[in-house]
Amino acid sequence: MPKDYTIENVYEPGYNSFSPSDDSPYLGKKGFIPAHQLGLTTDPRVANQIAALSQSLNQGVSVMEIGTLSPQVFETIPKQHFAEMRRKAKLVEADLTLHAPIQGTDPSGFGQQGYEESNRILVERQLKDVIDKAIELDHKGNMPITIHGSNAAGSNWKYITDENGERKKVTEMLVAVDKESGKLVPLKEDIKYSPEGGNFQTGEKMSPEDSLIAHNRTQWRKDVDSVLFEKENADRILSEVYPIAGKYYHQLQQKKINFNQLTQEQREQILSLQTANSHIHQAELSVHNLFNKAYQYAGKTEEEKEKIRNQLKKFSEEYERNLYGGYTLKELEKLKDEEKQRIAGSARNDLRNQSYAIQNLAENLRSLNNSKYNVGMLQDIESFSIDKASDTFSNVALYAYEQKKEKAPALSIENLYQDIGFSQGEDLKNLVETSRRKFADKLVNEKKISKKEAEKIAAKLIGVTFDVGHLNMSKKFGYTDEELVEEAKKVSHLVNKVHLTDNFGFNDTHLPPGMGNVPFEALLEALGEEGAKAIKINEVGGWFEHFKSSPFPQILEAYGSPVYSSSTGPYWSQAGGFQQSYMEGYGQMLPSTNYQMFGAGFSQLPQSLGGQQGRGQEGGGRMGGGGF
Question: Of 105, 261, 291, 299, which shows the fewest CB atoms inside 10 Å?
């Protein structure tokens, strides 16, 4: 026998001498999440959630997240099952939470064809149905419902090292929305070459943000120029013909003369003026459309919109005064009918007067393009979605409040990975805070609740599901662990639920913790007190799908949870001496007979040693399994 052969090399040691190997999922901080806080998801693919819940409760899991990926599968769950799951959880003193379906349900209203308000209203109705089912499921009150903040395309950011050696966060691709059509427009960093400035060889770099501003300003300028082009065509005719034929033109308009009474030359002049009138009419339609665009779409925030609309109100009054001889329409209504008709018959029908009014309004609208506000049709999808999705969330929160008051289920808006909206901490924070503000305003205006109390209720019923795996996928864009921590800090005060899942930074693989490269300890510490109190769900649906087993033992092992609730025994990461775990120990390296003999009592010993095991027919030693 070799001299270095000892019994410890063959048999697994007990927990007292066990040290986790490099292959262990153990995260390195014993007991940093107690076992009673470690929740699991049910299998998100199946409608039989009641069976999936029972299976997990039988393992001793005390926090469970119910939910399916597909709205169609979610709709297949009978209402009675939600009530039965509530009773099961109450019986074993377990906590339940819910995940709303995600497929095809974007709270902002984006669908396959882009943004549609009808899509947003449909998702709002679906989420209200989720609230109804959550109420059936919730036996304690304020159960958090995880809802994806977005299921539409989102902008991407990356970290680079600049020429000074400083780390810098920049936009790699900005997804813009055409506010009029609802279509998405991706904008990337580009290089523009110009014959001016001496950069025709090297070009000038344009960031996605610069491209957005340039596109909006160029398009707005083109739209204003198209108005003025029609107007100038009319002016050219008017300058030549109107001084001669204007009198006849007005007499024809007032039906004082007949066209056939005119000479051939006069008829040609009138036809020219009608052409000018057509140009003016087209210019008028175009400038009205521009005014409508500015009123509906200009500005990113409510404050910006209000300021622009105040300017547009002044432009409107000036336009009316130019058309109606110094009067606005409201002022004109106060005049006597005879005076009103005189002005309408002269000033409003004067082609030169109309041309001047159109030009003045077009130039006023052009001036908006030089302001700091966004008057173009393209807007970054994040700010656009915040405005729309906050309407959805505030309406759904109000619906929940109307059902159960302050015990209503709480909305928990989840951060997504890059390529989908709200992957960045700042954007998610703005979405939640905007949703809370709108919800609080509804409580004040519709329920007559004080502002202070309304803000307290809003903070309670709208929060964040912080998904560490989704955030970790920013590593493929150059993020470091430290930069992920900074993103986490931005939403730490809003968190009411945490999704714990692992990956390698490229795909949302939903591995159990410790099996990828997510910096769990650093991210959880970044969440502070709110994160410590929040429900924690190990979102490991991929494990169910691919490995057909429960990952709960690996989860307990990874978080250093103690085997016994008294915390006086070993940790699950030291359980290699008690069982054959997935990651620890040597595995069943010896023949199965070895484990039968030493692991099943005296009855499995051979007869020669007082047991009942008979001698086999084949040769070989008893330890090799060949016979006794």
Answer: 261
